[in-house]
UniProtKB/TrEMBL annotation, chain A:
It comes from Kitasatospora aureofaciens. This is Spermidine/putrescine ABC transporter permease. Belongs to the binding-protein-dependent transport system permease family. CysTW subfamily. GO terms for cellular component: plasma membrane. It is found in: Cell membrane. InterPro entries: Bact_Polyamine_Transport, MetI-like, MetI-like_sf. Signal peptide: none annotated. The keyword Transmembrane applies. It is a multi-pass membrane protein. GO terms for biological process: transmembrane transport.
Automatic annotation (TrEMBL), chain B:
Belongs to the binding-protein-dependent transport system permease family. CysTW subfamily. InterPro entries: MetI-like (IPR000515), MetI-like_sf (IPR035906). Residues 85-283 form the ABC transmembrane type-1 domain. This is Spermidine/putrescine ABC transporter permease. Keywords: Cell membrane, Membrane, Transmembrane, Transmembrane helix, Transport. It comes from Kitasatospora aureofaciens (Streptomyces aureofaciens). One of its GO terms (cellular component) is plasma membrane. It is a multi-pass membrane protein. GO terms for biological process: transmembrane transport.
Automatic annotation (TrEMBL), chain C:
Keywords: Signal. Residues 1-20 form the signal peptide. SUPFAM superfamilies: Periplasmic binding protein-like II (SSF53850). It comes from the Bacteria. PROSITE patterns: PROKAR_LIPOPROTEIN. Pfam families: SBP_bac_8 (PF13416). CDD domains: PBP2_polyamine_1. Residues 29-49 are annotated as: Disordered. This is Spermidine/putrescine ABC transporter substrate-binding protein.
Amino acid sequence: MILSRRTRIALRAAMVAGLAVVYLPLLLVLLNSLNRDRSFAWPPAGLTTQWWVRAWQSEGARSAVLTSLQAGAGATLVALVLGTMTAFAVQRHRFFGRQTVSFLVILPIALPGIVTGIALNAAFRTVLGPAGIGFGLLTVVIGHATFCIVVVFNNVVARLRRTFPSAEEASADLGAHTFQTFRYVTFPAVRSALLAGGLLAFALSFDEIVVTTFTAGPGVQTLPVWIYANLARPNQAPVVNVVAAVLVLLSVVPVYLAQRLSADSPGGRL
Amino acid sequence: MAPPPTAARPLRRAASVLHRRAGLRLALLLSAPMAWLVLAYLGSLAVLLLSAFWAVDDFTYDVERVWNTANFSTVLTEPVYRAIALRTLGIAVAVTVIDAVVAFPMAFYMARVARPRTRKLLVVAVLTPLWASYLVKAYAWRVIFSQGGVLDWLVGPLGLSSPGYGTTAVIVVLAYLWLPYMILPVYSGLENLPANLLDASADLGASAGRTFRSVVLPQVLPSVFAGSVFTFSLSLGDYVTVRIVGGKTQVLGTAIADNVTLNLPLAAALSCVPVVLIVGYLLAVRRTGALESL
Amino acid sequence: MRISRIARTAAAATAAALLAAGCGSGGTAGSTSGHGGLNPPKLPMLQSLGPGEGQVNLVAWAGYAEDGSDDKSVDWVHPFEQQTGCKVNTKIAGTSDEMVSLMKTGQYDAVSASGDATLRLIAAGDVAPVNTALVQNYADVFDGLKNQPWNSVNGQMYGIPHGRGANLLMYRTDKVTPAPDSWSVVFDGASPYSGHVTAYDSPIYIADAALYLMRTRPELGIKNPYALDQDQLKAAVDLLKTQHKAIGEYWSDFQKSENSFKTGDTVVGTTWQVIANMAQTDHAPVKAVLPKEGATGWSDTWMVSAKAAHPNCAYQWMNWIVSPTANAQVAQWFGEAPANAKACDRTTDKDFCNTFHAADEAYWKDVHYWTTPVKSCLDGRTVACTDYAAWTAAWTEIKG
């Protein structure tokens, strides 16, 4: 498609303007993490690094990050297993209700977090409660995994759609049994899709607040829960901005890795 | 292949059973995910729906398992809930339209204009904000919209001022938050357009504009709908952003969240409104092939 | 199918009848407590104090369990943890409704409940009677707070009083002139500040409107802001709907409210002393006053969950928070009258207890403590009053 020079310039301008709007609030976060005024007076009267020192020492932030890493890892693991299984079922088999399965997988992320949250809360209370399992980290992992399945599923399905079953058939013809075929042929083909999906699943879980609120037990404080509790507190709000700024800077690594490793649609699918 | 060692025999036997019986393979593949999604997830939703038919004791607020449909008739007949539902729907539609309009040129530039190296960097640039905390971003917007805040400072010289906290702020912030969710599917849709299709259109004498309308748009529309699944449903259910920048604006999300503590069965009945709207929306866009483009 | 449906309908009808009967018996007394017939489930109370369980989960008002993260010098949680070995997990609740709903989860051990939550928790069996003999510092609590209708039933205490105070009117001194001394600035006279008025986001706020009407429109005959008949409720709702036009934000998150006052997005509205204190610490030009119409207020009680997993730590916490030193600290930080008489000797401001009328029972007669409105009018009238369910429905309608 040949675009006129003017169109190209217009498109580039749109791109630059779009990115500027996307990054303006993030820059503000960075700036406020250095703002001497603890309630973000604008424009800042002076800069300080004291909040960065405080954030480094903040016990609450550190343990919240740890909790979030645990929850994210657990949810991602469950999502990887369940999402991949569903993707293979849907993409490698023809069966009645196939459409319904792909629909069902999307539902948990499409329906409002608060609906998922109160539904799981009610169910946990009636089902897990009598079994002696209280709200805790486990319930958070269950909640997160539910809406993380979809991103793994989407990535793996997209990949499977492009890899033809012929390679798997060839492997079988050469005498490899099902598990060998999976290990040596199928898995390498979907590996990068799993990575992309797993990363997005982790990102979703790491940033989730609503479902977490309704599924976490007392004392279980994930990073977003900690952030929500400290977002507007004097002395703590700038520390929250430091944590957020650090997260953005750190996130470049996995995002870059994911898009390097993933051949189709860089960055993976949502 | 060498004869398998004895220890591997049961494995091989299982494998050959699986190989021969596709049905069993399918059943094994589906059992765990379906147990999770149907039992844990749909089961929970069913519990919630059931509780919408209960009542609360008007003093202790204990849920009373007295079967009634009063909650649904409240939600359906009280004008205030209709106003809230329509307002929320309007916000979700506005956010979706804004995101589609903003995302399309950006995605187009990334997929069709930028050089491959730049393209990769741009994808990273678009994806990175997804890792910044949703709450912190929303709160940054609160600072932007506040009196004498960044927006006032920017547009003040032009004689304008910040609209303050309210519906406008909610639409802007939600559109901001969900923008990457729209850019990514549209970008992959555009990227997957076969180049020879565009060449053919040009060879047949179509102008760039004509190619865009007749070739690009119809091919990419499912991707736009895919993106809209996120922007629409996430906007329809949000309440945290509304609490942060919404001022006194009431939406479905806040009404549900408020009633969780005030009247849980009513909250459950109210939950059915976004659920019905979103399921309807998903079913509608499924026909365009959007769900395959997610 | 059919049979089970009939059976269910019958069961529902029976339950409804029982419920109606329950309400009826509750309404006969018409005493000022309004719950003469309150008949809480028989629950055991702790008979002796055992070793601590290592942690305690609290539901608390903002500023009631400070651990130094807002202000390093404001910390009575860490000393408690060091002394007892009970780690404190605090969940801050913004409204009494949130507290009730959190306590119903059974995940929390203790709660700092106000009068509009206490009886609901007692009646539902969510909280257990408290054995005051196990709380050493209870002896020093003001007599005016012991065995009150909101914290006891038939002479049995259900908690340990914490402190009391009034909901105040806060305004930006640079934006609101002349300095207001009446709630009218957020009601009839709110229009100059349109878009920048705030109100507390809970149905209980309807009582603030009722209190204002009680003074300004005597013809409505409101005697108690928590006892409104249909017409009186409608008048209050109409007033609040007018107020809605001037509202910028409703608040239940104290931090957000403080923040709005600091930026000037909010210039006038109802507040707690602690919010005013925090805003002033941040050099915001704000002032909090008790308007001439009087105010609604609260009297808080620490209660123990009937399902407490850590009852011993919960009892130790209750003893700690009403101990003279901790009670003085929390009272000064929050800006309320302490419950422990000896706390008055430990405040850094020696006049603190006088300023907050800690021992002045006459003063508290004019402060209308939060309490749950019920069908049988709390002011002793024989007409039907509107209950909290009606207030709740009205609140959603007011917010539009």
